[in-house]
Write a structure and sequence with these properties.
Length: about 475
């Protein structure tokens, strides 16, 4: 099973930014939202921690997939185990029906209780949805699901059970099985109706948006159509975004009221501009460059100003790491919590993008990535580390303030100036450093909001001493 390819595609549009053109950047836009990815937390756990999530400055929380999913005997106990009968986190990425509830996250009633808690603390909930495929075991897919879409032969694209061989071939990418997962005929009107009824049920509970898993594996209008299945146009995204109704069912709320991001990992032959017509997209390439800088302890010879994407940055969902970079090939799992945190402060202090903070498993170390290894449990304490809290709140306070990025000559010190109102100072090296960089802050003496460290601005130059791998927030 190639989980890396099967589980890794994302997109994002800011719930605070409404525009038809998601490619042309508006330099006056400042994003203020931030997302906590409560990865593998169950509904009661998220509900119990909603107050802490809000107090930590996160404006949104993203759940793992909530639909009925593959539940082999013994599943639902551990995040990961070599003996898969013990249960794995990726089972909830294998849908068996489009109804709320599974043995990992909990029941519909438990989700309702979580949503009530979110409303109490003014936190928006976004749900990870994955209409592109079903479980590997197609016999595990529910009879109700098959019946609703017109039978098993109507569920999948004509080559949907054939694994993709070339992910840069758009016919294979959109009509064959990504990561060998059976590829759903998302253009089937009966499927679209059934799926939209699920979406509207989520909206009725108060859900405020979605992450679309494997979004680039669902075709847009320029992609090949599956004529062998009777498809005439690739219109799934038109239905999912409320532009079209299907068999009397349409999106229950105005699409622009939602935060929607899909998984469209950057690669060759991906029609990013066409996807941008429907939603923003993940800055996966930018995340890779940011992690490279954290590894080196320097941004020297790396471009962290450019977002490296065709979409306007106000419509990008950004991250230092995602559940895929952590849990699949462990591309980012070796980075320490300190390194991830400095990257988060830099990313979140910026003017644009909507940053997502991945919650690593509780007890995880750089030798034991799975930590306590309990499905449903809260992740580690990093999401409420004082530096994380400070920059999350800084982000909302800096609404309307444009960014100005400065880097030390050795690339170890990063300064994110926000107008003349505030600045985030980040030392990404393992050694003590000093900051001596231009800022928009007025001359004077400042104390950072986390450690009470003193910084001075004289003649427009910010100066101070920085501890290794530490971040500081100062506000006028």
């Amino acid at each position: 099973m190639n989980k890396i390819l099967a589980l890794s595609l994302c997109v994002g549009i800011s719930g605070t930014v409404v525009a038809k053109d998601r490619v042309t950047h508006n330099p006056d836009v400042t994003n203020t939202e931030s997302i906590l990815h409560a990865w593998s937390w169950n509904f009661p756990t998220i509900a119990d921690n909603m107050r802490k999530i809000a107090e930590s400055g996160f404006t949104m929380v993203q759940t793992s997939p909530v639909q009925n999913c593959y539940e082999p005997a013994g599943s639902g106990k551990k995040i990961f185990d070599d003996n898969v009968t013990e249960g794995n986190w990726y089972y909830y990425y294998q849908p068996t029906d489009w109804k709320i509830g599974n043995n990992i996250l909990g029941t519909r009633d438990q989700m309702k209780q979580m949503m009530d808690s979110a409303a109490k603390y003014n936190v928006k909930v976004i749900v990870d949805v994955l209409p592109n495929h079903t479980a590997f075991d197609i016999d595990a897919v529910s009879d109700d699901f098959y019946k609703a879409v017109g039978g098993r032969d109507k569920m999948y694209h004509s080559n949907g059970l054939q694994p993709v061989e070339d992910y840069n071939d758009r016919l294979q990418c959109t009509l064959w099985g990504s990561g060998a997962l059976p590829d759903v005929n998302t253009e089937n009107k009966d499927f679209q109706k059934y799926y939209m009824q699920f979406v509207n049920d989520l909206l009725s509970l108060g859900v405020k948006g979605f992450r679309y898993d494997t979004a680039k594996h669902i075709g847009v209008h320029s992609d090949p159509v599956d004529s062998a299945s009777g498809v005439k146009e690739n219109d799934f995204w038109d239905v999912a975004t409320g532009r079209k109704s299907v068999k009397g069912v349409s999106l229950a709320v105005p699409y622009d009221s939602l935060f929607v991001y899909g998984e469209v990992l950057q690669d060759r032959n991906v029609p990013e501009a066409e996807y941008a017509d429907y939603f923003g997209q993940t800055a996966s390439g930018y995340g890779h460059i940011l992690r490279e800088a954290l590894e080196k302890g320097s941004v020297k010879d790396l471009d962290l100003i450019n977002w490296h994407h065709t979409s306007a940055p106000e419509y990008l969902t950004t991250w230092v790491e995602s559940h895929d970079t952590y849990a699949n090939a462990h591309e980012s799992a070796h980075l320490t919590d300190d390194q991830i945190r400095t990257g988060w402060v830099f990313l979140t202090a910026r003017q644009n993008g909507v940053p997502l903070f991945f919650s690593r498993p509780a007890g995880s170390t750089r030798q034991n990535y799975w930590g306590d290894n309990v499905l449903g449990a809260r992740g580690n304490n990093e999401f409420f580390h004082p530096e994380v809290v400070a920059v999350n709140k800084f982000r909302t306070r800096m609404a309307g303030q444009k960014e100005d990025l400065k880097f030390s000559d050795n690339g170890q010190v990063l300064l994110v100036n926000r107008g003349n109102k505030g600045a985030a100072i980040i030392n990404i090296s393992k050694f003590a450093n000093s900051v001596n960089l231009p800022t928009g802050l007025p001359d004077g003496t400042y104390r950072d909001e986390v450690y009470g460290k003193e910084f001075k601005v004289k003649k427009g130059i910010l100066k101070g001493i920085l501890a290794p791998e530490r971040s500081y927030i100062i506000v006028k």
